[in-house]
């Protein structure tokens, strides 16, 4: 086994034992991993050179879709996941058809605009959405079984962990596939892309729908874990948080998105506990330190250490950033 | 007589007061490499941009293998068999030469599954062949933004050839390349084109290149094709010596 893969596997192994070894961290890590899935969506777009300041839209859409469905008799977790993801992907397609025509700051701000429109709807249509109070999301059944709180939270933790690994693998696979490679070239040279006979907009749209679906899955899992959905799910601060975590983890790195989400939630939880009045300041300083001293984020730090350690290791090192960011 | 591979009929386009094409008629026959020469700003690159759909003419039509492609976007024209290589190579700078070619092949094949991987063995050997064709096997795994201008030009052309086009339009294939490398690059290029059975049109300012590598030459000046003939006929013409060669050697 190469040095590069050792630590992620060790971290994964440790996560498996969290419910037994540190049950107090279980819900915190469930939320962190669920956010990691959403951040993968934002990270995916970063690989195409686009920053979305409004991806909380899809986080919110799927969470509310789950809350609406859970209010009916169809309140099964699997169904909530499928319906919420489909809702996020479909809305991603509709919004994407418009926003993929733009790049850079226009792309980012249009996403923000859509998310804020949705947030306003959630706030104003009180009778349907519960306004600022939001909607309760009662604990759903799991494949028809009604579980008590403790086993449900345990199951949710392992489900979220499994989805993080599975979707992380799928996203990496997508990025390594021909369609994923074309998607990433939107960042570097759209002229050549067009002259390869490929539409840059269509290519970006495919990745955009996947990123929306990932954010949607994250939204459902967070909503199910918290048992309530509020307009804050779609608020710009949530979108900013996703971009923050993506940069912290290492812009463009899928494993970095997971590491960033874990680091962010842990720092936030402990900063809030021990420095309640200044926890945002602590987070801000944390990010500044990372940006100043490790612009590649946590993934960059890890790659640098792994490369240093593997100089004695004969296994090949990455040639291109494309490989290095995997 | 066979139909031309590409035919421009009555092309007109202006940029403000500048006439880049004023009723231009030009045909490109299969198997004959055509060089377009002319003073700077005459409209030569504009012609390539119109033929590949990047610019739309205000009047006139472009036919490729008998089909009107005037209003099609570049990608649709590329899909019909017209490829383009640029004066400034258009590559994916963060990728290696091999990856650039693989992306081109994926685009050509129109693969959509997110679970497919890039590195299948038959494709890799196809890419190796292309790199060999343009003499760049030694830089297969190097990032293209770290290559010399000459190597980048050749990779740019290899990417275009990976699309298996019928017609390749090239804008100054040897500009920015050291004089000592120009003929070497053109030798490789012309051989690669012949081997891939691709007809080429190239805009060129170096008359040595035109003389040695073009089958035909068209002189583009003041928005029109003023004359056309073999390199020997055109390069000896007094008007060309005065208006084009004089300028190039000045």
Notes on the protein architecture:
The complex is a heterodimer of chains A (326) and B (250). With 326 residues, chain A is mainly alpha-helical. Chain A has helices spanning 3-16, 18-21, 26-47, 56-70, 77-99, 104-124, 126-129, 149-176, 178-188, 190-194, 200-226, 236-249, 254-274, 279-293, 297-309, 321-324; strands spanning 135-136, 228-229. In chain A, helix 3 crosses helix 12 (236-249) and helix 4 (56-70) packs parallel to helix 6 (104-124). Chain A is globular. Residues 315-324 of chain A have low confidence and may be disordered. Chain B is an alpha/beta fold. Chain B has 9 helices and 10 strands. In chain B, the strands form 2 sheets. A 6-stranded mixed β-sheet of chain B has the order 6-7-8-3-9-10, sandwiched between helices. In chain B, strands 2-1-4-5 form a 4-stranded antiparallel β-sheet, with helices on one face. The A-B interface holds A 170, 173-174, 176-182, 185, 188-189, 191-199, 210, 319-322 and B 52, 73-76, 78-79, 83-84, 86, 90-96, 99, 102-104, 106-109, 111-118, 141-143, 159-160, 163.
């Amino acid at each position: 086994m190469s040095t590069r893969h050792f630590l992620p596997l060790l971290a994964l192994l440790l996560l498996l034992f969290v419910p037994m070894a540190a049950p107090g961290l279980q819900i915190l890590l469930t939320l962190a991993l669920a956010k990691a899935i959403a951040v993968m969506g934002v990270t995916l777009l970063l690989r195409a050179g686009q920053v979305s300041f409004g991806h909380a839209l899809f986080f919110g859409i799927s969470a509310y879709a789950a809350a609406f469905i859970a209010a009916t008799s169809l309140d099964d977790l699997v169904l909530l996941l499928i319906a919420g993801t489909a809702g996020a992907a479909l809305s991603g397609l509709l919004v994407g058809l418009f926003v993929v025509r733009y790049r850079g700051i226009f792309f980012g701000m249009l996403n923000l605009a859509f998310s804020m429109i949705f947030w306003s709807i959630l706030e104003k249509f009180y009778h349907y959405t519960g306004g600022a109070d939001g909607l309760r999301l009662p604990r759903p059944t799991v494949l028809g079984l009604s579980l008590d709180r403790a086993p449900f939270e345990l199951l949710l933790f392992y489900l979220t962990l499994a989805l993080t690994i599975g979707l992380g693998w799928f996203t990496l696979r997508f990025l390594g596939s021909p369609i994923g490679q074309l998607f990433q070239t939107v960042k570097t040279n759209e002229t050549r892309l067009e002259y390869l006979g490929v539409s840059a907009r269509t290519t970006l749209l495919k990745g955009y729908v996947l990123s929306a679906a990932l954010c949607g899955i994250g939204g459902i899992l967070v909503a199910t874990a918290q048992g309530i959905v509020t307009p804050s799910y779609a608020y710009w601060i949530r979108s900013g948080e996703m971009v923050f975590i993506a940069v912290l983890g290492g812009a463009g790195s899928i494993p970095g998105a997971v590491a960033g989400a874990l680091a962010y939630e842990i720092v936030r939880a402990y900063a809030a506990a021990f420095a309640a009045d200044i926890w945002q300041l602590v987070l801000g300083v944390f990010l500044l330190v990372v940006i100043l001293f490790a612009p590649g984020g946590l993934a960059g730090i890890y790659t640098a250490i792994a490369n240093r350690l593997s100089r004695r290791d004969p296994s090949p090192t990455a040639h291109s950033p494309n490989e290095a960011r995997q | 007589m066979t139909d031309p591979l590409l035919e421009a009929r009555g092309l007109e386009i202006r940029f403000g007061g500048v006439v880049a094409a004023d009723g231009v008629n030009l045909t490109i026959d299969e198997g004959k490499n055509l060089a377009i020469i002319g003073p700077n700003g005459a409209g030569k690159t504009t012609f390539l941009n119109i033929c590949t759909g990047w610019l739309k003419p205000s009047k006139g039509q472009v036919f490729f293998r008998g089909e009107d492609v005037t209003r099609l976007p570049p990608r649709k024209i590329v899909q019909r068999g017209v490829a383009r290589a640029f004066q400034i190579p258009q590559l994916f700078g963060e990728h290696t030469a091999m990856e650039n070619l693989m992306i081109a092949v994926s685009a050509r094949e129109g693969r959509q599954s997110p679970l497919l991987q890039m590195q299948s063995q038959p494709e890799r050997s196809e890419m190796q062949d292309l790199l060999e064709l343009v003499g760049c096997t030694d830089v297969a795994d190097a990032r293209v933004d770290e290559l010399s201008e000459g190597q980048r030009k050749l990779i740019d052309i290899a990417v275009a050839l990976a699309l298996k086009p019928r017609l390749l339009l090239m804008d100054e294939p040897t500009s920015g390349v050291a004089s000592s490398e120009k003929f070497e690059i053109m030798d490789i290029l012309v051989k690669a084109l012949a081997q891939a059975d691709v007809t080429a049109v190239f805009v060129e300012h170096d008359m040595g290149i035109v003389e040695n590598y073009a089958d035909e030459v068209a002189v583009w000046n003041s928005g029109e094709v003023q004359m056309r003939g073999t390199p020997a006929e055109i390069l000896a013409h007094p008007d060309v010596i005065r208006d084009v060669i004089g300028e190039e050697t000045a």
